Amino acid sequence: MIEIKDLHKSYKMGSNSLHVLKGINFKAEDGELVAIMGSSGSGKSTLLNILGMLDEADSGEYVLDGIPIKNLNETKAAKYRNKFLGFVFQSFNLINYKNAMENVSLPLYYQGMGRKERNEKALKYLEQVGLKPWATHLPNELSGGQKQRVAIARAMAAEPKLLLADEPTGALDSTTSYEVMDLIQKINDAGNTILVVTHEEDIAHMCKRIIHLKDGVIVEDKKVKQVRAADYVQ
Amino acid sequence: MFSRDNWKEIFETIRKNKLRTFLSGFTVALGIFIFVSLFGFGNGLINTFDEFFQDDATNVFFFFPGRTSEPYKGYKSDRQIEFDNSDLADIEKNFPMVLEYITPRITRGSLVRYKSESNNYTTRAVGESHQFAEKTIMMKGRYLNTLDIADKTKYAVIGRLVEQDLFDDEEALGKFIDIGGSMFKVIGVFQDDGGDNEERMIYLPYTTRQLLEMNNDKIDQFIVGFKPEIGYTGAMAFERSLERFIKEKKYIAPDDENGIFIRNMADALQQNQQFAGVLQLIVAFVAFGTIIAGIIGISNIMVFVVKERTKELGIRKALGATPGNVISTILLESVFITTISGFTGMLLGVALLSSLGDTLEDYFITDPYINTGTAIFATIALIIFGAIAGYVPANRAAKIKPIVALRDE
Ligand SMILES: Nc1ncnc2c1ncn2[C@@H]1O[C@H](COP(=O)(O)OP(=O)(O)O)[C@@H](O)[C@H]1O
Ligand SMILES: [Mg+2]
User: Fold this and answer.
1) Of A2, A172, B205, B362, which residue is 20 to 30 A from B121 by alpha carbon distance?
2) In chain A, which residues touch B (CB < 8 A)?
3) Are A121 and A157 in contact (CB under 8 A)?
4) Helix boundaries (H) for chain A
5) What is the CB neighbour count within 10 angstroms for residue B141?
């Protein structure tokens, strides 16, 4: 599904340059649920953004589902993001003047799907995250956990090959965090490939594999026995 | 790009971002409104200007007698010049090719009485062609004619307001009025575009006036009408030769500035038109400035709008919006708002102008108007330049890396 080789990324700030990723090699198969761990500032988000084509690497190879991702222009990158990728952010990133259903149907709008069809589909995904009754509510009328579930529904609505979540529970209390992880596990159970950035051990152990980033390289890569979030949710 | 769904998305965005919509809409509407009003006022000013001249014929010269300021051919300086009937005949005889008509004008104030009503009016004793020089419009009856002049009839043609003052609802035609002690028969009632004063005049045959004044042949001043086809240069040449002719006849030094005075309406008209042209230019310049200000206004709002929406656009990009999508989202919304509010502003401006009519006449603005072509052209120009101005920030927003846009707070 994903293969990256010798990925480098540095940020230039004035005359200084901060080398964040110093040669990342990594492979993930279909259906994996991978946690990317590391201390704050270790480059987790940077890596995820490059994988999500929101940002570009300085050098290295990246192949997504057999397609080499290189020198994409913005239009092409946008099409790939729309077709292959779903994003979940720590700060939800919902559009505040659109209600839950409209937020969820937005990626489908950019796929060119008709209004009726995409609203139906959005409602279906809202139902899967348990928020169908909240379809017409604006983001500011929802709790943090609800917002993140809407964001997950939005990420899934386009039926992406790869779901990327950057600290999806970072802004939530632990109960809500487990609810969100439960949802992510279920999506993974259905066969979707998911990468989750987190710095919380318990969240990481709800994945199937943990990668540790330190000083710009992967220092540890291990399979773990998945802790089911459902056990912690009533 | 123009599918129904796209428009729905835009309408939704507009509906849910009322402040933004209001801001840009208001700027554009106000810009066009001011443009239309200013332009209309300018035209109203020019209208007022033209009216000063529409009232009288413009192919005429007025000749007034003066006092000489130089001795000449044995005559002393400071001699009062007088015109008389022979001057009329001489001019008619000497300039048949260019002369259309000539008429004297003897002006006197008189107490006029009809039954118990009386009032002071200005009477003008004139020839029959005075009607053309003054553009007198007959409402009823007739104007003075050649026979009246030859027969020295005691006929009067009275202004509309004179009739109103003296006769109330009574029919004036055929009635006799007392003008300065002599009875005159009213043969006509006229109106004039020159205002109330012009309509409080009474016209009499000049021969009758001369008869009443001890049968003399003096005239105060005379008006020469020239054939319009001689044009402006022809008129100027005619004026010079007439001046030379009169000065020679009256023994006035050729370079004496005070012996006679000539008012050349053709020349005045020319100057008026030049002035009106300058006025029009200034108005157009100011109005053009308004449009420029409007365009600057929208581009500022567009910069603000794009800044405000940076994060949202980042989210849209992450979800698959292409740079083209981003540009069309911003531009279509802006063009839609500018179009609606631009035409609203235009209609409001036009409505204001047409509701004003004559109410601003005290400020020299008569019937302000803007022709539809100019108004629509300005509105469309504002829309197009607004779109171009909006394209710059839209394009910049489209080029921002999604990760940068997402980081925006
Ligand atoms: N746009 C940027 N410009 C400059 N430095 C950045 C930028 N984004 C991240 N960094 C720096 O790169 C390092 C890695 O950041 P990040 O990938 O966000 O870390 P993490 O998500 O692991 O906390 C940090 O030191 C951060 O300050
Ligand atoms: Mg991070």
Assistant:
1) B362
2) 49, 52, 54-56, 74-75, 78-79, 81-83, 87, 89, 93-95, 97-98, 102, 106-107, 109-111, 114-115, 154, 158
3) yes
4) 44-51, 74-84, 100-110, 115-128, 144-157, 174-189, 201-204
5) 16
pLDDT digits (tens, 9 = 90+) for B246-293: 999 999 999 998 999 998 888 887 887 788 888 888 888 888 888 888
What pLDDT was estimated at residue B224? 94
CB atoms within 10 A of CB B366: 20
d(CA A20, CA A10): 5
Going by alpha carbons, the residue nearest to atom 24 of ligand 1 is A41
Of all residues in chain A, the percent with pLDDT exceeding 70 is: 100
Residues 6+ apart with CB under 8 A from B298: B24, B27, B28, B334, B338, B382, B386, B389, B390
Report d(CA B66, CA B79) in Å as an integer. Answer: 8
pLDDT tens, residue by residue, A70-81: 888 889 999 999
Which span out of B203-207, B237-241, B296-300 was modeled with the highest average pLDDT?
A: B203-207
Domain count, chain A: 1
B320 vs A114: CB contact, 8 Å cut-off?
no
Contact predicate A18/A58, CB 8 Å:
no
Chain A residues within 8 A of B401 when measuring between CB atoms: 54-56
From B319's Cα to the closest Cα of chain A, the distance in A is 5
CATH, residue A222: 3.40.50.300
Domain span at A88? 2-231
Q: A182-191 long-range contacts, Cβ below 8 Å, gap at least 24?
A: A182/A228, A182/A229, A182/A230, A182/A233, A183/A129, A183/A149, A183/A152, A184/A33, A184/A152, A184/A229, A185/A33, A185/A226, A185/A228, A185/A229, A185/A230, A187/A152, A187/A156, A187/A163, A188/A31, A188/A33, A191/A30, A191/A31
